[in-house]
């Protein structure tokens, strides 16, 4: 199993899905998604046998751009997250029928391909290309298969597209500048360069713009809620489950090692920004009327905390951030799926029109409850591990960060339980709510199983990511 | 005759052709009659040719003159085509006022 | 330094140059300034002739002849014919806004200034001019240069002229009103 | 052996939970009850066995590494020592009784299987809390019981008021949990371990201790305890939590979960001993809570609300003891309180059951005849809580007051007033409920009956314990103190030699209790006063009746501003930010529109620009 095979599987899968026709497309896509997941597991086992997972070949001679893929523990963890979530997301959409579904599923696989490439690439330009490539499919998915008024949707989606694209351009500029300085785009060499403090500052800032918009951190988040609301749920899952993690992953992989001095100097600002996002997102989520929007803002709060953890520049912070990234990926996909399940039955996302579902569907209620609890980081769920580690690392920087960041467990509980109360509890709803189908149940059960398993036994993931994170930390600390 | 530049000086030729060239530019900007604009362009071309020849003499090198020769050939072609275009514009629009040719408007 | 012609002790050549230069500039200016296109054409003709004089002054007989033939003989005839063809010999120019005139004048001054400054700046005006006595601009030499070194461009020039001719014919041909 | 026993002890309720969740609906109501109860009884039996066979040394069972922090590992492990076994004993013991009680009490509810599932889950988390070998394991249980409390308070989920109460309980607890977490962070970074045994070793041996940070850690942990054990300022959730079924109130909100805070403080006694300033705070908070809650309880008319405020008040007394470092005294009161408060709640449950859901004492009365067993058991429990010799409450409460007397007279006075009030409101409850004539509707009167034996048997057992529970720690020869001695780092609390002062104190306490009962007797039995209707309450009692308007104040200070802020953020800030981003696009558009005008098709203009450009370039390049 070579690392390129994963990408090839996904790309071929996208083509095969497109040519398999509308009827078979979902199944073909699922098959290839699972194949990619199996491939990732193979890679994992190779990695565990201490094999270097690498693929380098010269792509363009001048400027020197390599087609360089490299999978260390961190990249593998993210790859696994991507390839594990993709089949789940595809499977979750089986209850819906889409027009022109062959294109729809092909785009999903294509997006997975781009995102997997982003996590694996170790050459700056290659990484940049994958990064931008992932934007194209989601643009079409949200635009064509989204919901709500077409004009409104177009406005939101185009805004998202241009906004993130504009942010990334700064990153490209930074890469070009780095190339002028070092003559290479390879992360291996970029993370060894000795740039002056001013240079680092500007490069850090350029990267930051790209990532802050993608993650998103406040105040760059305005695209998020609208796109989440307008995109089809599958698109929302892809966005929130995986694509946000691209930004966070890139912070750890690219931004910190390349400009560590700037990171250290302005650490407090960025941690503060992350925590401000936590509080802001939580408070805004309180009064949302739309279920998906509420979840979008909760996502904003969570990624704020993750970003704050990453910017602490401690092993705990990085580790917590990665753990929380994975946990959040699963839980947010689950929650959006719940929103979709309700939508399939009630055709609405307005919280005010729901309520009284529990009496009709106890199974669904339990699963929803568990997801809500995981989202508010109840101990023994995976999210707790991540949140605890991140908060601990924040407390090592300054106890006030931990206290302010910790308000997430209060505010998070407040808005999630309030939402749960108004969506599920109360007098039995007059409209019939059919209990979850087997497919829906299976999807949720898989997600819940993952959350509990790693909540109780996170050691495999911790062992997987720790060496790479230590490596990155050495690079970050090379100026001391 | 071979000491002509000793008597006049290359700089006077430079001034002459610069002023000639600028008159050409002025004409292009000032007039709106396409034919006159055309003539102005010819003046500019000639200014440049004159300078070429002057420098050719100054450097005692034939290349400058060869270049003028080519530029004359090109000018001839240009005038032929350009005037043809003018004629066809005149036929279609019944005017050759460049102020009226606003199809480029974005 | 710029040599100001010493009019008191001017040599015949200097006088000839001055006269020619004045004619050139004056006619060029009148070409633009004349209201009637036909007058412009006549002025332009005189201008070109004076430039031919310059060429002769510089002892490049070949170019003087070519200039005479091409510009005065061919191009001017073309222009005059066009003017007559379109029957444009009337003051049909509409009112020009003041801003246009102002702009043109400003540009004219600016361009002169910049170009002259550039030439002065680029190289201190070269000192004495010495001749080597070598023949470089007789028709004989030019012919050799043209047909040895510049063979290919020369041929291309002919192709260009051919193409221009065909193009001119095509363009000026009356379109058949088939539509 | 130990490992498997511990696992069975832990997992038995969990299996019960799984059974009830997945098979409960099919299995039928009686099976559900039996399985639910049995699973707890199994745990109780194992605890008894461990209690009988445990040595002095604590047993540690580590399963695997759970969370890895840079400087330490947190193990997924359990610790069995005297404290945890003692706690397990009454958690599983009272848990079993209440499960038994619930079989009958909840029999008519269609969702009885989920009720038992939640109860079992609660026991499971409570066991985790008690047995956890480190702070984080305790935190699992800590949050877990909070979750179960949430689920059970909102058990009748169709009523949104109940759901609000449940949500409030959960969020209030979460505020405390944040404190707990912060405490964990500080402890972790100070000592590089969260393990109780290692912590104890480190703290008791370490020399250079950072007083400030220790105090902060203790304070943060105490805030956590406040949340769970309903102390000021986080107590308001507990009375609201009475929205849940009565067995839940008895089990979670009286006997077990709310004592978790006391458990935590006792568990970390070595830490709190290092922070005397925080101990002072604890004592003061405890005393004030005891008094405030007791005053509120004086005028409440809902039978369960009275008991709820009584619980808050009693918990306050326990914290008073903890504040003086008298951990074993607090533990003693926890145990006796568990007996009589569980008994009282179950008794009130029996009354409510008999009256088909009526909770207002103004509509009760004269039940003495129709419900004799309930009456007698509740009377015993009330006497116990009032502190009448020789019932359990007398001994434990007396010890607390005695400790207070030795440390701080003011706090002793507060505590004594609170316990006099306790006697008053408990007997107000008894007189209003059981004496005089029945004030309810005719139909209710017609259906009055004694509860079935599944309800009365647990009542009787608990009443017996309430009566005799005091013998585990009689002044002078206290079995409890000796049993718990290995836990405490300090040379244990000096035994009270029973001198004149002590006897005088006992006498004062008893007389106080009798005075309280006397006033209640005069007012509610002799004069037969019925508390006035809600609208007619005036003056001080109105303030008390409305609980000092604390809920309203919290609402105005915290909840409303947050919601207003949320609306503000949503409507103003979000739109502004969005408009800013769109504004960038609009600016570009505007520039384009203006720029378009330059391209008006006039060749002259183009040329003009072109010439200017050439000039500029030439100037730049050559000048």
From TrEMBL, chain A:
Pfam families listed in its UniProt record: Proton_antipo_M
Similarity annotation: Belongs to the complex I subunit 4 family.
Main location, first listed in the record: membrane
UniProt name for this protein: NADH dehydrogenase subunit M
Upper classification of the organism: Bacteria, Pseudomonadati, Bacteroidota, Flavobacteriia, Flavobacteriales
Transmembrane segments: 6-21, 28-47, 67-91, 103-122, 128-148, 160-180, 200-220, 232-254, 266-287, 294-313, 325-343, 364-386, 398-417, 438-457
GO molecular function annotation: NADH dehydrogenase (ubiquinone) activity; NADH dehydrogenase activity; ubiquinone binding
Cell compartments where the protein resides: Endomembrane system; Membrane
Membrane topology of this protein: Multi-pass membrane protein
Residue ranges annotated for the NADH:quinone oxidoreductase/Mrp antiporter transmembrane domain, each copy included: 121-406
Keyword field: Membrane, Transmembrane, Transmembrane helix
InterPro entries for the chain: NADH_Q_OxRdtase_chainM/4 (IPR010227), NADH_UbQ_OxRdtase (IPR003918), ND/Mrp_TM (IPR001750)
TrEMBL record, chain B:
Subunit: NDH-1 is composed of 14 different subunits. Subunits NuoA, H, J, K, L, M, N constitute the membrane sector of the complex.
Subcellular location: Cell membrane; Membrane
Record's bilayer topology term: Multi-pass membrane protein
EC number: 7.1.1.-
Taxonomic lineage from the root: Bacteria, Pseudomonadati, Bacteroidota, Flavobacteriia, Flavobacteriales
Keywords: Cell membrane, Membrane, NAD, Quinone, Translocase, Transmembrane, Transmembrane helix, Transport
Stated family: Belongs to the complex I subunit 4L family.
Function noted in UniProt: NDH-1 shuttles electrons from NADH, via FMN and iron-sulfur (Fe-S) centers, to quinones in the respiratory chain. The immediate electron acceptor for the enzyme in this species is believed to be a menaquinone. Couples the redox reaction to proton translocation (for every two electrons transferred, four hydrogen ions are translocated across the cytoplasmic membrane), and thus conserves the redox energy in a proton gradient.
Annotated GO biological process: ATP synthesis coupled electron transport
GO cellular component terms given for this protein: NADH dehydrogenase complex; plasma membrane
Protein known as: NADH-quinone oxidoreductase subunit K
Gene3D superfamilies: 1.10.287.3510
Major subcellular site: membrane
Pfam assignment, any one: Oxidored_q2
UniProt xrefs under InterPro entries: NADH_UbQ_OxRdtase_chain4L/K (IPR001133), NUOK/Mnh_C1-like (IPR039428)
The keyword Transmembrane helix belongs to this UniProt entry's keyword annotation: yes
Record-annotated membrane-spanning stretches: 12-30, 36-55, 67-90
GO molecular function: NADH dehydrogenase (quinone) (non-electrogenic) activity; quinone binding
Protein encoded by which gene: nuoK
Reactions the enzyme catalyzes: a quinone + NADH + 5 H(+)(in) = a quinol + NAD(+) + 4 H(+)(out)
UniProtKB/TrEMBL annotation, chain C:
Gene3D superfamilies: NADH-ubiquinone/plastoquinone oxidoreductase chain 6, subunit NuoJ
Catalytic activity: a quinone + NADH + 5 H(+)(in) = a quinol + NAD(+) + 4 H(+)(out)
Localization per record: Cell membrane
Keywords per UniProt: Cell membrane, Membrane, NAD, Quinone, Transmembrane, Transmembrane helix
Main subcellular localisation: membrane
Entry's Gene Ontology molecular function annotations: NADH dehydrogenase (ubiquinone) activity; quinone binding
Membrane-spanning intervals of the chain: 12-33, 40-58, 64-87, 99-120, 150-171
Topology within the bilayer: Multi-pass membrane protein
Family: Belongs to the complex I subunit 6 family.
Annotated function: NDH-1 shuttles electrons from NADH, via FMN and iron-sulfur (Fe-S) centers, to quinones in the respiratory chain. Couples the redox reaction to proton translocation (for every two electrons transferred, four hydrogen ions are translocated across the cytoplasmic membrane), and thus conserves the redox energy in a proton gradient.
Protein name: NADH-quinone oxidoreductase subunit J
Source organism: Flavobacterium fluvii
Top-level taxonomy: Bacteria, Pseudomonadati, Bacteroidota, Flavobacteriia, Flavobacteriales
Automatic annotation (TrEMBL), chain D:
NADH-Ubiquinone oxidoreductase (complex I) chain 5 N-terminal domain span: 66-116
MF terms in GO: NADH dehydrogenase (ubiquinone) activity; NADH dehydrogenase activity
Record's GO cellular component terms: endomembrane system; membrane
Keywords assigned: Membrane, Transmembrane, Transmembrane helix
Transmembrane segments: 6-24, 31-51, 85-103, 115-133, 139-157, 178-194, 214-238, 250-272, 278-299, 306-324, 330-352, 373-397, 409-434, 454-474, 503-521, 603-622
Domain (NADH:quinone oxidoreductase/Mrp antiporter transmembrane) ranges: 133-422
InterPro entries assigned: NADHpl_OxRdtase_5_subgr, ND/Mrp_TM, NU5C-like, Proton_antipo_N
Record-linked Pfam families: Proton_antipo_M, Proton_antipo_N
UniProt-annotated location(s): Endomembrane system; Membrane
Primary location class: membrane
Topology class, membrane: Multi-pass membrane protein
One GO biological process term: ATP synthesis coupled electron transport
Cross-referenced PANTHER family: NADH-UBIQUINONE OXIDOREDUCTASE CHAIN 5
Protein name: NADH dehydrogenase subunit L
Organism from which the protein derives: Flavobacterium fluvii
Lineage of origin: Bacteria, Pseudomonadati, Bacteroidota, Flavobacteriia, Flavobacteriales
């Amino acid at each position: 199993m070579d690392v390129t095979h994963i990408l090839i599987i996904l790309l071929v899968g996208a083509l095969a899905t497109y040519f398999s026709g509308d009827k078979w497309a979902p199944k073909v896509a699922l098959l290839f998604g699972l194949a990619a997941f199996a491939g990732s597991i193979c890679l994992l086992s190779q990695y565990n046998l201490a094999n270097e997972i690498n693929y380098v070949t010269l792509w363009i001679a001048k400027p020197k751009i390599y087609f360089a893929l490299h999978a260390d523990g961190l990249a593998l963890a993210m790859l696994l997250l991507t390839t594990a979530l993709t089949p789940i997301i595809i499977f979750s959409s089986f209850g819906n029928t889409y027009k022109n579904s062959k294109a729809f599923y092909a785009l999903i696989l294509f997006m997975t391909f781009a995102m997997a490439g982003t996590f694996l690439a170790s050459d700056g330009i290659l990484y940049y290309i994958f990064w931008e490539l992932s934007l194209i499919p989601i643009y079409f998915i949200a635009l064509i298969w989204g919901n709500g008024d077409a004009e409104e949707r177009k406005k939101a989606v185009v805004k998202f597209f241009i906004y993130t694209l504009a942010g990334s351009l700064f990153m490209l500029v930074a890469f070009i500048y780095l190339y002028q300085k070092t003559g290479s785009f390879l992360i291996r060499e970029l993370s060894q360069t000795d740039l002056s403090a001013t240079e680092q500052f500007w490069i850090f800032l350029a990267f930051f713009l790209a990532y802050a918009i993608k993650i998103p951190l406040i105040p760059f988040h305005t695209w998020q809620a609208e796109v989440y609301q307008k995109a089809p749920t599958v698109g929302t899952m892809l966005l929130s489950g995986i694509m946000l993690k691209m930004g966070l992953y890139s912070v750890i992989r690219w931004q910190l090692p390349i400009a560590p001095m700037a990171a250290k100097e302005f650490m407090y600002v960025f941690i503060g920004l992350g925590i401000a996002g936590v509080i802001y997102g939580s408070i805004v989520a309180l009064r949302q009327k739309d279920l998906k929007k509420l979840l979008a803002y909760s996502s904003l709060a969570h990624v704020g905390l993750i970003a704050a953890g990453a910017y602490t520049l401690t092993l705990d912070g990085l580790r917590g951030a990665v753990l929380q990234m994975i946990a959040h990926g699963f839980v947010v996909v689950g929650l959006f799926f719940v929103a979709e399940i309700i939508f399939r039955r009630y055709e609405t996302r307005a919280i005010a029109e729901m309520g009284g579902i529990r009496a009709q569907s106890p199974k669904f209620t339990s699963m929803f409850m568990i997801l809500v609890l995981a989202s508010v980081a109840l101990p023994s769920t995976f999210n707790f591990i991540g949140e605890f580690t991140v908060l601990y690392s924040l407390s090592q920087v300054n106890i006030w960060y931990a206290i302010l960041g910790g308000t997430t467990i209060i505010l998070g509980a407040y808005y999630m339980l309030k939402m749960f109360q108004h969506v599920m509890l109360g007098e039995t709803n007059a409209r019939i709510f059919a209990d979850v189908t087997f497919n829906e149940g299976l999807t949720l059960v898989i997600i819940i199983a993952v959350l509990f398993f790693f909540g109780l036994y996170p050691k495999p993931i911790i062992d997987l990511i720790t060496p790479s994170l230590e490596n990155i930390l050495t690079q970050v600390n090379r100026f001391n | 005759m071979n000491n002509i530049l000793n008597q006049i000086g290359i700089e006077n030729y430079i001034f002459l052709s610069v002023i000639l060239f600028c008159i050409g530019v002025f004409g292009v900007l000032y007039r709106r009659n396409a034919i006159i604009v055309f003539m102005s362009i010819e003046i500019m071309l000639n200014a440049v040719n004159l300078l070429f020849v002057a420098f050719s003499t100054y450097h005692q090198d034939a290349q400058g003159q060869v270049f003028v020769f080519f530029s004359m050939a090109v000018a001839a072609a240009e005038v032929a085509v350009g005037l043809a275009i003018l004629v066809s514009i005149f036929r279609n629009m019944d005017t050759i006022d460049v102020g009226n040719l606003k199809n480029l408007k974005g | 330094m710029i040599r100001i012609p010493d009019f008191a002790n001017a040599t015949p050549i200097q006088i000839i140059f001055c006269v020619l230069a004045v004619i050139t500039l004056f006619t060029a200016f009148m070409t633009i300034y004349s209201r009637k296109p036909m007058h412009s054409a006549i002025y332009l003709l005189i201008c070109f002739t004076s430039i031919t004089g310059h060429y002769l002054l510089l002892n490049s007989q070949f170019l003087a002849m070519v200039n005479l033939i091409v510009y005065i003989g061919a191009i001017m005839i073309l222009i005059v014919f066009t003017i007559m063809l379109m029957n444009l010999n009337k003051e049909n120019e509409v009112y020009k806004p003041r801003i246009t005139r102002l702009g043109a004048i400003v540009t004219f001054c600016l361009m002169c200034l910049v170009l002259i400054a550039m030439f002065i700046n680029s190289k201190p005006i070269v000192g004495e001019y010495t001749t080597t006595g070598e023949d470089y601009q007789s028709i004989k030499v030019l012919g050799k240069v043209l047909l040895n070194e510049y063979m290919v461009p020369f041929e291309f020039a002919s192709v260009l002229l051919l193409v221009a001719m065909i193009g001119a014919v095509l363009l000026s041909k009356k379109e058949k009103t088939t539509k | 052996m130990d490992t498997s026993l511990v696992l069975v002890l832990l997992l038995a309720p969990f299996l019960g939970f799984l059974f009830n969740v997945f098979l409960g609906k099919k299995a039928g109501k009686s099976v559900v009850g039996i399985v639910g109860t049995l699973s707890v009884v199994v745990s109780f039996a194992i605890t008894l066995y461990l209690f009988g066979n445990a040595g002095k040394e604590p047993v540690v069972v580590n399963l695997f590494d759970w969370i890895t922090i840079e400087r330490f590992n947190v193990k997924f492990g359990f610790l069995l020592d005297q404290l945890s076994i003692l706690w397990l004993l009454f958690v599983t013991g009272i848990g079993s009784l209440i499960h038994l009680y619930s079989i009958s009490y909840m029999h008519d509810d269609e969702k009885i299987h989920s009720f038992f599932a939640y109860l079992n889950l609660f026991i499971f988390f409570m066991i985790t809390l008690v047995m956890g070998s480190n702070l984080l394991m305790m935190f699992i249980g800590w949050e877990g019981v909070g979750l179960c409390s949430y689920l059970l308070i909102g058990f009748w989920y169709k009523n949104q008021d109940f759901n609000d109460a449940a949500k409030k309980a959960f969020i209030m607890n979460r505020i405390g949990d944040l404190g707990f977490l912060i405490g964990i962070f500080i402890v972790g970074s100070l000592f590089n371990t969260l393990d109780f045994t290692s912590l104890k070793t480190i703290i008791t041996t370490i020399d250079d201790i950072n007083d400030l940070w220790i105090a902060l850690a203790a304070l943060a942990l105490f805030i956590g305890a406040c949340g769970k054990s309903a102390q000021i300022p986080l107590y308001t959730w507990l009375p609201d939590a009475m929205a849940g079924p009565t067995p839940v109130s008895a089990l979670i909100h009286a006997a077990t979960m709310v004592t978790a805070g006391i458990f935590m403080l006792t568990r970390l006694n070595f830490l709190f001993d290092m922070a005397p300033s925080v101990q002072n705070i604890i004592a003061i908070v405890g005393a004030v809570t005891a008094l405030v809650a007791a005053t509120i309880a004086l005028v409440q008319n809902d039978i369960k609300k009275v008991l709820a405020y009584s619980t808050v008040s009693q918990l306050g007394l326990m914290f008073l003891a903890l504040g003086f470092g008298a951990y074993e005294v607090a533990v003693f009161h926890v145990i006796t309180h568990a007996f009589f408060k569980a008994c009282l709640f179950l008794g009130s449950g029996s009354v409510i059951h008999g009256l088909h859901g009526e909770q207002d004492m103004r509509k009760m009365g004269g039940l003495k005849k129709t419900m004799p067993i309930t009456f007698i058991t509740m009377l015993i429990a009330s006497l116990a809580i009032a502190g009448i010799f020789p019932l359990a409450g007398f001994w434990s409460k007396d010890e607390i007051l005695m400790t207070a007397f030795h440390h701080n007279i003011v706090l002793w006075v507060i505590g004594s007033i609170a316990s006099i009030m306790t006697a008053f409101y408990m007997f107000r409850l008894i007189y209003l409920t059981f004496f005089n004539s029945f004030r309810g509707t005719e139909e209710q009167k017609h259906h009055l009956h004694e509860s079935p034996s599944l309800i009365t048997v647990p009542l009787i057992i608990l009443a017996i314990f309430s009566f005799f529970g005091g013998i585990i720690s009689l002044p002078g020869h206290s079995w409890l103190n000796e049993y718990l001695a290995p836990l405490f780092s300090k040379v244990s609390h000096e035994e009270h030699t029973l001198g004149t002062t002590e006897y005088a104190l006992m006498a004062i306490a008893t007389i106080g209790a009798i005075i309280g009962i006397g006033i209640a007797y005069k007012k509610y039995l002799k004069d037969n006063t019925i508390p006035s209707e809600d609208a007619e309450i005036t003056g001080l009692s109105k303030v008390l009746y409305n609980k000092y308007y604390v809920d309203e104040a919290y609402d105005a200070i915290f909840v409303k501003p947050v919601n207003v802020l949320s609306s503000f953020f949503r409507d103003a800030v979000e739109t502004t930010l969005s408009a800013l981003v769109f504004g960038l696009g609009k600016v570009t558009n505007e520039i384009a529109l203006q720029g378009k005008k330059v391209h008006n098709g006039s060749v002259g203009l183009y040329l003009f620009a072109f010439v200017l450009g050439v000039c500029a370039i030439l100037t730049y390049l050559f000048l």
